[in-house]
Specification:
The complex is a heterodimer of chains A (402) and B (243).
Chain A lengths: L2 H14 L1 H36 L6 E6 L21 H10 L3 E16 L2 E10 L2 H5 L4 E4 L13 E4 L1 H8 L8 E4 L2 E9 L4 E2 L2 E2 L3 E5 H8 L6 E6 L5 H15 L6 E4 L1 H44 L1 H9 L4 H37 L9 H28 L2 H6 L2
Parallel strand pairs in A: 3-10, 5-7
Antiparallel strand pairs in A: 1-11, 1-12, 2-3, 2-6, 2-11, 4-7, 5-10, 6-7, 8-9
Helix pairs in contact in A: 1-10, 2-8, 2-10, 2-11, 8-11, 10-11
Chain B lengths: L4 H4 L2 E12 L2 E13 L4 E5 L6 H8 L7 E6 L2 E2 L5 H11 E5 L10 H11 L4 H14 L15 H13 L5 E5 L7 H16 L3 E5 L3 H5 L3 E6 L2 E7 L11
Parallel strand pairs in B: 3-8, 3-9, 6-7, 7-8
Antiparallel strand pairs in B: 1-2, 1-4, 4-5, 9-10
Helix pairs in contact in B: 4-5, 4-6, 6-7
The chains are: A alpha+beta (402), B alpha/beta (243).
Chain lengths: 402, 243
Amino acid sequence: MRLPDLLRFTTLALRRQRFRSGMLLLAVGLGVAAVIVLTALGEGARGYVMGEFAFLGKDTVIMFPGRKETTGGMPPVTGTSARAITLEEVEVLQRTVAGIGGVAPLVLGNAPVSFEARARDSMVIGTTADFFDIRLLEIAQGSNLPDLALDEGKPVGVIGQKLKSELFDNRRAIGQWVRLRDYRFRIIGVLKGTGDSFGLDLSEAIFIPVASAQSVFNVHGLFRVLMKVQDNHRVDEVKSRVADRMQELHDGELDVTVISPDAMLSTFDEILRILTLGVAGIAAISLIVAGILVMNVTLMSVKQRTAEIGLLKAIGAPSAQVRSLFLAEAALIATAGAVLGMVAGHVLVTVGRHLYPAIPFTTPPWAILAALGLAVGTALLFAWLPAQQAARLEPVDALGRK
Amino acid sequence: MKAWSWFRRMIEVRGVSKTFYLGDSAVHALDNIDLHIEPGDYLSVMGPSGSGKSTLLNMLGLLDRPDDGSYLLNGVDTMELDENERARLRRDQIGFVFQAYHLIPRLTARENVELPLMLAGVAAKTRRAQVDEILDKLGIGSRAHHLPNQLSGGERQRVAIGRSIVMKPSLLLADEPTGNLDTRSGQEVTQILEELNREGITLLMVTHNQSLGDRARRHLRMVDGAILTDHQQAGAEPNRAPA
């Protein structure tokens, strides 16, 4: 039988059972749509998390005081009571450990920043010019923090967009002096964009040299140290060299934690990928249920069309042809359902993207292929049994039954 | 079997039996039947219900297998064929006309006639001419695009006949072809079948209708699975199939 004839014959048979075919279409379509939407959610979540963590930067090593025995987890939010990391130690690291490029020690604090009569409680970040490179931040106006020795303070600061507009409205901020506790700082730059990432809204922050921040908050230890790994060095090697060096500096005790976001990110990536696979698997179950429905419907079809099967055999259709007629029906409806489900799923994903632009919902290509393959595959698999039943009917028996 | 006999005899049945079991009792639907049919012959099979007429027809049409005996169709020993080979023989050499028409309800008259060609994989272009010819010949050209439920009984049976001859079979088996028709349509259908026989097809018709049965050249009467009488009308020679 030629393909166009087969398609026409099959389509006519399906059209005759509109309701039944419609239900099947719905079942298969729902299954495929579920796979597409759920994997898009999973991939969206993965993309979102990856995006959020991307600020940690590539090829970066992060060090903070205290020892966390767990690996691959989140860095602790606050420092612990372990021995502090000092600027001198950072300076030693930068000088002696091979592979370290830029270094951004961090001192964090909250303090009111005031200009004329206005004051805003702001996050104060004491760091170096390298911080902006490492965190991929850009300066919109003015200039970056100056290149200073680590222990050198200077009364200059860079502020975020939001803080700038809160203190200065539309006036020019560059060159103005703001007050921070007992110190005054001259604004030399404004950060570009919101810089919103991971709970820290950098657009509401003011950046000052790390030594100045130590004076303002009267602290000695560092909250974090971000280190950029040079291109020709491996991140994990630099990471262990830093840890070793710190252990030496701290009299043989390893009381700092050194992590690399790359390793962390790839762990997250893997976890979220597995999660996506998991939800895809759950959605796939609905396709298998649809397959069972296909079996029932084909079984009904075979029972109802027994006389027709008898006739087909009488006019010379071999068993394999009778079987393929019923299989073609199952395959056709599964394919149609899958296409419908794909369109519906795609529409839902697009709507989701419009509602939550921050989350990059995308269905991975493997999920589309898998959904299509599974839909048609299970339909054929489950239709095989009833189709085989039809093929095995004795023509004389089949013709006799009305 | 002698060498020349295989092309002379279209059907050669020897010692064929078929037994059905209804509960504990055995019903001999066919009881050691011997039957030879020449190409181009016109036979009627008559007999009471349950005498095995339809079983004989199904057996000759390769729809059913005998329990015992041998059946040669155009020289081919059908007992040795598997189901696919039997399907091929049915497709190429045998046409069926049933009392209940057995048209496919969702296909038009034309498509029903076309069905065997379609199943055989004949290209649509080639099919068209063949089907047109048959539809015109059977006088249903104008009804070609009607569905079976839009046709009268006589028209339906003509569609069924069209379907049975579209593969140009040598043997036409008709099981009560006029059983569901009024007298007039029945006569028309019978005339069509006889016309086909005159053109060379071997026609075997199972019927209850005495006057219809009498029109055949050869009359078989069956009782209890056996051929009771086999009466050849005097002077009648079977039509020879054009070689």
